[in-house]
TrEMBL record:
SUPFAM superfamilies tied to this protein: Sigma2 domain of RNA polymerase sigma factors, Sigma3 and sigma4 domains of RNA polymerase sigma factors
PANTHER family for this protein: RNA POLYMERASE ECF-TYPE SIGMA FACTO, RNA POLYMERASE SIGMA-70 FACTOR ECF SUBFAMILY
Gene Ontology biological-process entries: DNA-templated transcription initiation
Residue ranges annotated for the RNA polymerase sigma-70 region domain, each copy included: 30-93
Upper classification of the organism: Bacteria, Pseudomonadati, Bacteroidota, Bacteroidia, Bacteroidales
Pfam families noted in UniProt: Sigma70_r2 (PF04542), Sigma70_r4_2 (PF08281)
Domain RNA polymerase sigma factor 70 region 4 type: 124-176
Organism superkingdom: Bacteria
The organism of origin for this protein: Tannerella forsythia (strain ATCC 43037 / JCM 10827 / CCUG 21028 A / KCTC 5666 / FDC 338)
Name of this protein: RNA polymerase sigma-70 factor
Keywords, alphabetical: Sigma factor, Transcription, Transcription regulation
Family according to the record: Belongs to the sigma-70 factor family. ECF subfamily.
GO molecular function: DNA binding; sigma factor activity
Length: 191
């Protein structure tokens, strides 16, 4: 990628080079757009989530560079992709809140009944289920749920991408849901 003084490479040229696998062009695009895209996310979501959304969009752009087509400009495409990811995240979080309130309303009388669950039994069953998870799933899950690390922090610690962390945690949750289905109302509040 050539960048002389006074010469600015266009987004279209950058993307053409990216499409051909030029990592330096991708880095230049990332450096150019990351700050403004991240600032844009702040009107929708928390800053930490914004970092993750922008990184996800940029990783997705790189991984799908051969198939990406945009109608107006690369800049508009990136802003639209980031906005859509922010809105999806908001929808997911809103759904989680709604489900929590519904479960809490329906189950609150059960939670108040001391016979409903035995804390030691619950802890034992969760620990057993966690030990049956594949090591990589368990490690990512525990770092997120029990140590409150973000996907980005976990990715850095485990030397993997945030997408890999997301996949591992989703798989861990899926397996735990199946294994602990009879405890789901309680687990929803714990995990």
């Amino acid at each position: 990628m050539r960048k002389d003084k006074g010469y600015r490479i266009s987004d279209e040229t950058l993307f053409l080079q990216i499409r051909h696998g030029c990592g330096k062009s991708f880095d230049a695009l990332f450096i150019k757009y990351y700050p403004v895209l991240w600032a844009y996310t702040r009107q929708f979501i928390e800053p930490e989530d914004g970092e993750e959304v922008v990184q996800d969009v940029m990783v997705w752009l790189w991984e799908n560079r051969q198939r990406v087509a945009f109608e107006t400009s690369l800049r508009n495409y990136l802003f639209r992709a980031v906005r859509n990811r922010c809105l999806s995240l908001i929808d997911r979080n809103e759904l989680k809140r709604k489900v929590y309130h519904i479960v809490h309303e329906k189950m609150s009388s059960h939670f108040e009944n001391p016979d409903f669950y035995d804390y030691e039994e619950l802890t034992r069953r969760i620990e057993e289920a966690l030990t049956r998870l594949p090591e990589s799933y368990r490690e990512a899950f525990e770092l997120n749920r029990f140590h409150q690390l973000t996907y980005k922090e976990i990715a850095e610690r485990l030397n993997v991408s945030p997408k890999t962390v997301d996949y591992r945690i989703q798989q861990a949750l899926k397996q735990l849901r199946v294994e602990l289905k009879d405890l789901l109302p309680i687990l929803f509040l714990v995990l």
